[in-house]
Amino acid sequence: MEPLLTYQAVEICFNGRAVTHDVRFTLHTGEILAIVGESGSGKSTLLKAAMGLLGRNGLVTKGDIWFKNKDLPDLSEREMRKIRGAEIGMIFQDAEASFCPMRTLGEQIYESLSAHMKITRAQAKEKALALFETLQFQNGQRIWSSYPFELSGGMNQRAGIATAMLMNPPVLLADEPTSALDMAVQKQVVEEMLRLRELLGTAIVLVTHDLGVASAMADTILVLKDGRVMEYGPARQILQTPQNEYTRKLLAAVPRLRRT
Q1: β-pairing, 32-36 with 203-208?
Q2: 204 - beta bridge partners?
Q3: Is 72 exposed, middle or buried (0-12, 13-18, 19+ CB in 10 A)?
Q4: Ordered mean pLDDT values, 10 residues apiece, the chain (260 residues)
Q5: Do 44 and 19 touch, CB atoms closer than 8 A?
Q6: Model confidence pTM above 0.85
Q7: Residue 14 — left, alpha, or beta (φ > 0 → left; ψ -120 to 50 → alpha)?
Q8: What gap in Å lies between CA 87 and CA 96, rounded to an integer?
């Protein structure tokens, strides 16, 4: 089976200083890959590189990031705009901060959909409410009509996941999607992302420092330290028989979430 997303020997620099080194992995349809490691290890940077969001000072200086036979770092901003959202969705660590505080979620969802397809506001609302129902959100109408500050942090995060999935992108990049949430909401978010994979076949790259979340979700785990891959393979193998000393140290903390 052809991989959906492939990182080949990727080096990323900021202001000429390398922060990731020779990173390699592949992602297949329906696979959940967790990239784990401490803060500052380069996890989020790897996701931003695929989305073309490294900013003015960041650059992929070596290697390739392949998606559907396109090398993402070589694409123009115009070409990337067609891929962002429609082909590769992204959930940010703080979804509330990624929403505009001055406009309702419904307005923002309509705008994001209309950027990629011809759709009326009523059609966008119908599509959003149907997905809210699939994800078992209570009172989807209220979410659609609310401003971000009127919802809890957990509800904003869950709405961020739904918004990212409305275009049904084959790949979803999730940057620490549960780190700011309490345990009950963490569990909801994990269950919702697993449901998306089950219903839509979505492939997910999950960045997390929490091995409990990784153990609850991932098929494959990549362990990153100081921008270098320490270990990469099936989740069960890495969680049960880690080969690297750094991985063993990360596992010293008992995972908080497990598959049921």
Answers
A1: parallel
A2: 32, 172
A3: buried
A4: 93 96 97 93 95 94 96 95 91 81 93 89 93 85 94 86 87 87 79 86 91 90 96 95 91 56
A5: no
A6: yes
A7: beta
A8: 22
